[in-house]
Specification:
The complex is a heterodimer of chains A (317) and B (263). Chain A has a 6-stranded mixed β-sheet, sandwiched between helices. Chain A has a 4-stranded antiparallel β-sheet with strand order 2-1-4-5, with helices on one face. In chain A, helix 2 packs across helix 3. Chain A has 2 domains: 233 residues, Rossmann fold; 57 residues, Alpha-Beta Plaits, CATH 3.30.70. Chain A contains 10 helices and 14 strands. Chain A starts with a strand and ends in a 15-residue tail after the last helix. Chain A is α/β, with parallel strands linked by helices. Chain B has 263 residues and is mainly α. Chain B has one domain. Classes of the chains: A alpha/beta (317), B mainly alpha (263). At the A-B interface, strand 6 and helix 2 of A face helix 1 and helix 5 of B.
Chain lengths: 317, 263
């Protein structure tokens, strides 16, 4: 079953004080996320990622379209007890301690009183905040607040977790911990829908990604497929302080770095290039196929700055 | 979500609102109140002849009312708007909490804070009375009724602050609420004026007089300070009136908030 079915969800706002004009935040969006999937929603700032999440959470109302979450209409009250949400740069009641906040959210989420305290302590330990559990949140750093945010999102053991820029504001260690947490959620069978503009995180974590720009979904694809392509090129690294003329003749793009040369050339020229190296008696360090990266896909889908996607025919949902 | 769940969620939100007010040192106003009242009681004890009780009741209850109204307005206008600005609302509304439950919970949280605040102030008023009169009398019971009426005023002020803040800026909401409190305190005069005015002006004055909250009927401070009784009929009428008026204002706030986009 699909965990999320977004059916032409659309949002525009009226802006301006006297002369109201329409500002489109999200063009009709059609997207399906399967159960158990980790889906990355990629796009630059202001692309429409947060608007999409707010629409799904019922924080803003769609101009048109609808969505089904876990088989239920998005505005069905029963949905909320089965989802968790971490907003971007979360801010919590700073008069509460982390423990009190999680207990409060547990109450609102319907976590039974019996076992609630144990669940809160378990979540605090899971995000590494047991030692600061009694400290008021006004004394927490940004990274610590992000951890609290993650704990509250999974506190009630939801089937589906929405995370808006979960790595934002975290140091490298914190980012790694969040990555581990998302991996754990995947192993527990949860569906994770998270927005980010950090591509390495998406590449490491996601089963599929969607690229959104200027409120429009530009493309959706499986990460494994997007990064498995060889692009028909190979990268050869060898010891030398110059680029042999024979290699340049094969169409290689070479770059000298200290005592080594890094050359990229068409795959069909691979044997000829190795022959050149043998002839010149140069020591080969490595030969690897050039793989496609998520970054290339992302940039390709975004297109030149300010340009609209030429068509949406490539969007696979 | 059953009704038991609804009541529980409203209760949790109300308690959190109360806890926030207490931790944000709202009850510190009690220190200023205690200083004012004890100073006044000592002063009255020195200079008044036979009117100590009148002065202490008048001053004490007026102070309870004004302190409470100021708290009701300044916390009331931020009850929901602050949660939107700070985005604390996002993690609440992404749970099984309906928007109306949130608004009603916040309302009960603030009125609960004001009830506790008023109870503590009431203790101060009675201690001051004891200090100047050396004993309690039967007519002091009516002071309790005046305090009850003051709490009813707070209900309406909180509801109005919540209503205005649901569609305007906090500053404008504070101004609207305070203006209505002032005009509503003169509601009986306004109704008298409406009765003697003819034509369109009369219709307009009557409309406004009955639309604004009638705070003057909820003000029996002078009456009880003189030791006069308050009729049971007035207690019943004012209770129903305050509950209906505040329910309507909270409903208005809910209706607006239900449709609001939380940008």
């Amino acid at each position: 079953m699909a965990a999320i079915e977004i059916l032409d969800l659309e949002k525009s706002y009226l802006v301006g004080f006297w002369r109201k004009r329409e500002k489109v935040a999200l063009r009709p969006l059609r997207l399906t996320i399967e159960e158990g999937e980790v889906f990355g929603f990629l796009g630059p700032n202001g692309a429409g990622k947060t608007t999409t999440l707010k629409l799904l959470m019922g924080l803003v109302f769609p101009t048109a379209g609808t969505a089904r979450i876990l088989g239920m209409a998005m505005d069905d009250p029963r949905v909320k007890s089965q989802i968790g949400f971490l907003p971007e740069q979360p801010y919590f009641y700073d008069h509460l301690s982390a423990r009190e906040l999680l207990n409060y959210y547990g109450q609102l989420s319907g976590v039974p009183a019996k076992g609630r305290s144990a669940r809160v302590e378990q979540m605090l330990a899971r995000v590494g905040l047991s030692a600061s559990a009694g400290v008021q949140l006004r004394k927490f750093s940004k990274g610590m607040l992000q951890r609290v945010g993650l704990a509250q999102a999974i506190l009630h053991d939801p089937k589906l977790v929405f995370l808006d820029e979960p790595m934002s504001g975290l140091d490298p260690m914190g980012r790694r911990e969040v990555r581990d947490l998302i991996q754990q959620l995947r192993h527990e069978g949860k569906t994770v829908f998270f927005s980010t503009h950090i591509l390495s995180d998406a590449e490491a974590l996601c089963d599929r990604v969607g690229v959104i720009h200027q409120g429009e979904l530009r493309g959706v694809g499986a990460v494994a497929e997007l990064t498995s392509g060889t692009q028909g090129k190979v990268e050869i690294i060898f010891c030398s302080q110059r680029v042999p003329a024979g290699l340049t003749g094969l169409g290689a793009e070479a770059r000298i770095s200290g005592d080594m040369v890094n050359a990229v050339l068409p795959e069909e020229q691979q044997d000829a290039a190795l022959e050149v190296l043998r002839r010149e008696r140069l020591k080969l360090i490595s030969l690897t196929p050039v793989r496609s990266s998520l970054e290339e896909y992302y940039i390709q889908k975004l297109g030149p700055t300010g340009e609209r996607a030429e068509s949406r025919k490539g969007v696979g949902v | 979500m059953n009704s038991g769940g609804t009541n529980a969620r409203i209760g949790y939100i109300a308690f959190n609102t109360f806890r926030e007010a207490v931790r944000d040192r709202v009850l510190y106003n009690l220190i200023a109140f205690a200083l004012l009242l004890s100073g006044a009681a000592i002063l009255v004890g020195e200079i008044s002849i036979d009117i100590e009780r009148l002065v202490v009741v008048n001053l004490g209850l007026t102070a309870v009312s004004l302190f409470g109204v100021v708290i009701a307005i300044f916390i009331g206008i931020g009850l929901v708007s602050k949660e939107i600005d700070k985005r604390t609302l996002y993690t609440v509304l992404s749970r099984p909490v309906r928007r109306w439950e949130f608004v009603v919970g916040k309302f009960f949280g603030l009125t609960g804070t004001l009830v506790v605040n008023t109870l503590l102030m009431a203790i101060g008023v009675f201690l001051a009375l004891l200090y100047v009169a050396h004993t309690f009398e039967m007519m002091d019971v009516w002071v309790l009724v005046a305090l009850y009426f003051i709490v009813l005023q707070f209900l309406i002020v909180c509801a109005l602050a919540l209503f205005f803040s649901s569609f305007s800026t906090p500053l404008m909401a504070a101004l609207f609420t305070f203006a209505l409190f002032v005009v509503g305190s003169l509601a009986e005069d306004l109704r008298g004026f409406a009765r003697i005015t003819q034509g369109l002006g009369g219709w307009l004055a009557t409309g406004i007089a009955y639309l604004v909250p009638n705070f003057s009927t909820l003000n029996v401070i002078s009456q009880v300070a003189h030791g006069d009784a308050v009729s049971g009929r007035l207690i019943l009428y004012d209770s129903v009136y305050a509950l209906l008026y505040s329910a309507m204002a909270v409903s208005g706030a809910v209706l607006i908030f239900q449709r609001r986009n939380l940008k």
